Amino acid sequence: MKEDNITVTATPAEQALLLGVKEKIDEGAAALRSQHFEQAAACFVAAASRAPAGHSARDVALHNLLTAHKQWIEHRLADGDHAGLDGQLQRLFKRTPDGPLARQAAFRARDADAFIDLSKGLYRSQHWDAALACARQA
Fold first, then answer.
1. Which of 138, 102, 105, 106 is closest to 122 using CA atoms?
2. Cα-based angle 102, 30, 106 (whole degrees, multiple of 5)
3. Residue, of 38 and 6, whose pLDDT is higher
4. Residue 56 in contact with residue 93, Cβ under 8 Å?
5. Could you give phi then psi for residue 5, rounded to 5 degrees?
6. Which residue, among 132, 127, 100, has the nearest Cα to 115 in the 3D structure?
7. How far apart are CA 20 and CA 43, in angstroms?
8. DSSP letters of 29-78?
9. Is the pTM higher than 0.90?
10. How many CB atoms lie within 10 A of CB 39?
């Protein structure tokens, strides 16, 4: 798993708040590396809910949430466990990055790449509708 470092700027007033967001993102990243996908997703949701709406820290948390769900679904497909995929995908589709990173082409491309990869895995597992939904989301 490749980890990108993204620098997030903050005013002095935002720094204390964003420190809590960073801690949750770091906790989620550690859980993801240990393949504790549910725990990672919960950490990224918590980080996104703590970050101010429209802030780049929220964009980072939501992208990490996408990564956690993608890896979780891929792991389940590899194990032949297909239960609950639709609900998981619906939760994933509801995430909406809305900060400055979400308006950058490189950031949007990484999100699209994750959805395309997920679409391919679902296609190979013969989950046609889910594969198509992920391709559309990209």
1. 138
2. 20
3. 38
4. no
5. -100, 125
6. 132
7. 11
8. HHHHHTT-HHHHHHHHHHHHHHSPTT-HHHHHHHHHHHHHHHHHHHHHHH
9. no
10. 16
